[in-house]
Amino acid sequence: RRPDGCGIIIFGASGDLVYRKLLPALYHLYARNLMPEKFYILGFARTDMTDDAFRERAREALVDAHEPDAPETVTKFLSKCMYVSGDYKDPAAYKRLQTKAATCDCDFSEKENKLFYLALPPQLHPSVVSRLSECGLTAEGENASPWARVVFEKPFGHDLNSALELDKHLSSMLDPSQIFRIDHYLGKETVQSILMLRFANIMFEPLWSQRYIDNIQITVAESVGVEHRGGYYESAGCLRDMFQNHMLQMLSLVTMEPPTRFEAEFVQAERVKLLRAIRPWSERTLKDNIVRGQYAAGTVHNEKAVGYHDEANIAKDSATETFVGMKLYIDNWRWQGVPIYMRSGKRLHMRESEVAVTFKRVPHSMFGFASQHEMPANILVMKIQPNEGVDLTIHTKQPGPKTCMASLSLSFKYEEVFGITPPDAYERLLLDCMLGDRTLFLSRKGVEAAWTIVDPILNFWRDHPDKAPLHSYEAGSWGPQASDDLLLRSGHQWRNPP
Ligand code: BG6
């Protein structure tokens, strides 16, 4: 289904996210005939730029994103892109925006549907929404747009209090149905397929609990450093940047109860319930079960990489973490006692994200060559990216006259089976937003539940730096030794892909 016509107004249009993700995603939807028949894209940012300069930038973005060479389609797409510059807090700039929106396409009336995308730091969210609302741009109804939706790019707030404040502010101006909080990990094909794997197959669910699962590991490893986002990253750090959102959302999909229907209300509610079941931290677990690290110089993919302190816009004595590893528990019947290990970091050995579910060993070995404790476990690995797919390790008889065992992998590779690489997460989420489907977006309660888990860690680090040392790790490694030790203490180890 194609969405109804709409204007897409992007704040922060000269920024990195718009260049790398949003413009290519919108183009890709357009090239696949999934954009509305009538639409325009109106960029807004402080940088002074003409429409043509913005179009040129958009063209470069498409080239950099390796979009297929289709000059006519690109030209048509670019003709729908416009730009307005101004200060995010200046009411006059919004008037210009409003006038431009009205003239963007002669087929459009001011009362067309509107999608506002705030690719901006959270401090700017309240003023932008206030100004939009003052101009009547977010109004919905008979004498206004049939719908006006606002997408908020993460981070949603800086901590629990600021997220609550922001919510209060937004709900005084917008109806909850107009608010779309994005976490692009939920739009990844392989993250969505966690739900399909769990709930479209009968064979996993009966085993999906503390009775048969020994531990779960979630890794999101990046080989890149902070790139040119030093300013943002210094104030965020890995915990806010990756755990408050992506990591916890993935965890909730892997461990939540089955929703009754694949609809926003049901899916969001189960995700929230799961997050609320995560065992609260104690001073002991904050100290013993969480490791933070920061990369030092090293070699990544055979190239020298500078340490975090030598990256652009980073304070020489910065204590911002670029790696976090943690162990946590979920206090409910299904997951009691199952350790969940999660880690994410920049400048790690390679880019690799996966969810690995390690099952318990068989309860008794009938084979003379191995005791019960020597029998290897089955491991189900959901490969999120790259090399998207699923691997299930099973054990079988090694051919030959003797009774020997061989371990092998039943695996499926997304690209081989479907013949395409998975589309970018933003495509799906932008389309869902235009269609008004909130299933893959975050609810207010979901964001709060995630901050409730992350806030005590941030406070502990701030108040007790002596009890939570910042470990250094070499760029190109798998993180600090303390992260390996965290698992070794429980008799486990990280699965480090070769
Ligand atoms: C973003 C973070 O949300 O996710 C970045 O701000 C991170 O720091 C990125 O690099 C990772 O996303 P992906 O889709 O490349 O895995």
Looking at this protein, list some descriptive labels.
alpha/beta; glucose metabolism; binds 6-O-phosphono-beta-D-glucopyranose; 498 residues; 6-stranded parallel β-sheet; globular
Short description:
The chain is of the alpha/beta class. It has 14 helices and 17 strands. Helix 1 crosses helix 2, helix 6 (160-171) packs antiparallel against helix 13 and helix 8 (230-255) packs across helix 9.
Task: Map the helices and strands.
Blueprint: E1 6-11, H1 16-31, E2 39-45, H2 51-64, H3 71-78, E3 81-85, H4 91-103, E4 113-118, H5 125-134, E5 148-152, H6 160-171, E6 179-181, H7 189-199, E7 213-221, H8 230-255, H9 264-276, H10 283-288, E8 290-296, E9 298-300, E10 303-305, E11 323-328, E12 340-345, E13 352-359, E14 379-385, E15 389-398, E16 404-413, H11 414-418, H12 425-435, H13 444-463, E17 470-474, H14 481-488
Parallel strand pairs: 1-2, 1-4, 2-3, 4-5, 5-6, 7-12, 8-17
Antiparallel strand pairs: 7-13, 8-11, 9-10, 11-12, 13-14, 14-15, 15-16
Bound molecules: 6-O-phosphono-beta-D-glucopyranose (BG6).
EC number: 1.1.1.49
Family: Belongs to the glucose-6-phosphate dehydrogenase family.
Protein name: Glucose-6-phosphate 1-dehydrogenase
Protein model, in words:
Its EC number is 1.1.1.49. GO terms for molecular function: glucose-6-phosphate dehydrogenase activity; NADP binding. The chain is 35% helix and 21% strand. The chain is an alpha/beta fold and 498 residues long. The longest helix has 26 residues, at 230-255. It has a 9-stranded mixed β-sheet, sandwiched between helices. It has a 6-stranded parallel β-sheet with strand order 3-2-1-4-5-6, with helices on both faces. It has helices at 16-31, 51-64, 71-78, 91-103, 125-134, 160-171, 189-199, 230-255, 264-276, 283-288, 414-418, 425-435, 444-463, 481-488; strands spanning 6-11, 39-45, 81-85, 113-118, 148-152, 179-181, 213-221, 290-296, 298-300, 303-305, 323-328, 340-345, 352-359, 379-385, 389-398, 404-413, 470-474. 6-O-phosphono-beta-D-glucopyranose binds next to loops.
